[in-house]
Each structure stands twice: as structure tokens, then as C-alpha cells.
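PROTEIN DATA CARD
Card holder: OSBL5 protein
Chain length: 232
Origin: Pampusana beccarii
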Amino acid sequence: DGEVHINELKNGNAETFWNPTSEVRRQRLKRHIVLFEEQTDFESERLWQHVTSAINKGDQHKATQEKFVLEEEQRNAARERRENGTEWKPLLFQQDAATNEWRYKYEDLRPWDPLNDIAQFEKDGILQTMERHLSTRMSNHKTTCINNQITRHKRSAKDCRRRKASDQPSNHSQNTESSCSTPESVQELSDDDGKYLGFESLCAQCGKEMNHLKEIHSAVLSLQRAQQDIHR
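Structure generated from the sequence above:
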């Protein structure tokens, strides 16, 4: 969210390549980090804290010394494992047999979905994504629509029965057909039931959001395939 400049070394000209507006800066993704006191000894911020402190103070000599201490400890630990025949088993990385490269076990290469993804964070070294779950919200919205229509349907049936009762003579029973043909009870409504009762669609919002969700899903799948091809 900062300015980016292009400097042309041949003629010394400089131009602004990117200058974000205040609106862009407000929309930037929030950075979530693990609190220092909650980090383990081998997490980078804690492990390299003395090196970082020396760099921030401008003490290059001290930073080099602290870096040497860390690297020497790692070399000694590796030497002891070899002598004891202890196999090193990384918790978060695995070696790719094809490329012989080390890869993060929990890497997430799918494109970021701004409509569904809220935040990405690390917990115990494992990368995780907090999602909105659009499909769940759509399901809840659909259920709410059905329940509302069932309520209105039952209320209509109750009013119909009341009108039937008031139309009957008080001195004798009579089988009189009523103009109200609404069923007296409704247990459950499926999509087909809704059409049978005259509800061709749950609501305009449901239809639009379902179609929009399908388009998003199709686009995400296409992006994922492209990302996989690029990765290969």
C-alpha cells in the first residue's frame, strides 16, 4: 500500500508506477501475526530476535555475531543427529521426490476469493483461511424463505377454517363446499411442493444469489486450474 517508483538508470529519469489512494489503503488486508509470547523457540521472530534488534539499531557487527551464534548451534545440532543416527523429521515441510525441493505441507495455492475468504492466518505453523461459507448462508436464507411461506400458508388455512365454521348453520350440520381450497396443514415443503402450492420460486433474492453463486464457483474452478498449470 505504498508508492512504487521506476528509476531508469540509463537516463536517470524516474516515474511513479503506483501511488495508492487513501481508499486503497483503507481496503488493504489486515496482517494477523502470532503474539511473541505465544511463539515457540524455533519460530522466526523469536529465533532471530537478537539479530533483528541489532539490525534495527544499525549495529551490523552485533547482528553478524548473533547470526553466527544461531548458525553454529544449528550446525552442532545437525552433527549430533548424524553421530547418533537420529533422523530429522520436519513438522511443517516435506521433500518433493521429483524436484528434491522442500515444500511447505499446508501451502494454499488457490486464488483468493474476496466474496468468501475473510482472513488468512497461521496457527501452530499451519496456514488456515477463515471463510464466510456462501453456500451455508444461501442454505440458511432458503430455509428462512420456506419457513416464512409455510407460516403464511398455515395462517391462510386457519383463516379459511374460521370462515368455514362461521358459514355453517347452528341448528344442523351441513356439508357446504367452501371457496377456500387451501390445505389445512402443511408439514414440510420441498421445492416441488412449493411449485404445487403456487410458489414458483422462493424469492427473487434467492434466485439471483443462487445464479451468482454458480457463476462464482465456475470462475473459481477455472482460476484454480490455471493456478495449478502455472505451478506445474
